[in-house]
């Protein structure tokens, strides 16, 4: 029988699958709930949450849900189902807010996907277990904190260069949200994992200080 902590992760995955499937089959549904700057600024704030449950295709959905299953299980088991949900939806909203801020002058910029929420969950799990071993490209082992810093730096570079059809701003915002919310929920991490907390914070601090200059570089 599934524990409550596992069940909440499964329910979020099911919600993503069902909502995404509806979007696959219904163009108007997809257009109504995707993230789009001009629509959000005109009052359709629900898109900041609903867009996180839409995906472009099964591959996009599959990657996000696989990562959520792996890392969400860690966070929910350690912090409990309510805190998992706080981090998940807080990171999703943070990703949308940062995307809205960064692309505010691009009225037709649009985005979809749970990447912001999942990025926050991934960063939360790394904060809890900074020396966990992760596999880059399923082959190269590295400590979780190295992966976390590298992921952030790549996302910053990707956002500046607009690499691929990827919402790098949502990744960054979600990561910042997951980082901040986890530390608010578990402040003892400052004492237990002090060095790793500051290592993971460095690219976030640099982004917050210099992020508004990225577009002009």
Report on this structure.
It is a single chain. With about 220 residues, the protein is mostly helical. It has a single domain, classed as Rhomboid-like (Rhomboid-like fold), CATH 1.20.1540. The protein has helices at about 5-25, 25-35, 35-40, 45-50, 60-80, 80-100, 115-130, 145-160, 170-185, 190, 195-210, and strands at about 35, 110, 135, 140-145. The protein has a two-stranded antiparallel sheet with strand order 1-2. Strands 3-4 form a two-stranded antiparallel ribbon. Strand 3 (about 135) and strand 4 (about 140-145) form a beta hairpin. Helix 5 (about 60-80) crosses helix 6. The longest helix is centred in the N-terminal third of the chain and has 22 residues, at about 5-25. The relative contact order is 0.13. The mean pLDDT is about 85.
Please give a handful of descriptors for the protein shown.
217 residues; mainly alpha; Rhomboid-like fold; 4 strands; 6% strand; protease; Rhomboid family intramembrane serine protease
Helical region count? 11
Q: Give the strand order of the largest sheet, numbering strands 1, 2, ... along the chain.
A: 1-2
CATH architecture: Up-down Bundle
Radius of gyration: 17 Å
């Amino acid at each position: 029988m599934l524990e409550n902590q596992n069940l909440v992760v499964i329910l979020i995955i099911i919600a993503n699958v069902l909502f995404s499937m509806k979007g696959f089959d219904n163009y108007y549904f997809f257009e109504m709930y995707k993230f789009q700057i001009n629509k959000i600024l005109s009052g359709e704030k629900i898109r900041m949450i609903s867009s996180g449950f839409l995906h472009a295709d099964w591959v996009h959905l599959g990657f996000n849900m696989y990562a959520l299953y792996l890392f969400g299980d860690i966070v929910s088991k350690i912090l409990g189902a309510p805190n998992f949900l706080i981090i998940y939806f807080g990171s999703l909203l943070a990703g949308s807010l940062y995307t809205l801020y960064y692309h505010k002058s691009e009225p037709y910029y649009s985005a979809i996907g749970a990447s912001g929420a999942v990025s926050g969950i991934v960063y939360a799990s790394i904060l809890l277990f900074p020396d966990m071993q992760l596999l880059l490209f399923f082959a190269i082992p590295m400590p979780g904190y190295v992966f976390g810093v590298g992921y952030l730096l790549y996302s910053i570079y990707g956002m500046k260069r607009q690499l691929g059809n990827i919402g790098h701003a949502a990744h960054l915002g979600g990561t910042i949200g997951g980082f901040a919310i986890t530390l608010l929920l578990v402040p003892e991490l400052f004492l237990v994992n002090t060095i790793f907390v500051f290592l993971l914070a460095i690219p976030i601090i640099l982004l917050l200080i210099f992020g508004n200059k990225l577009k002009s570089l």
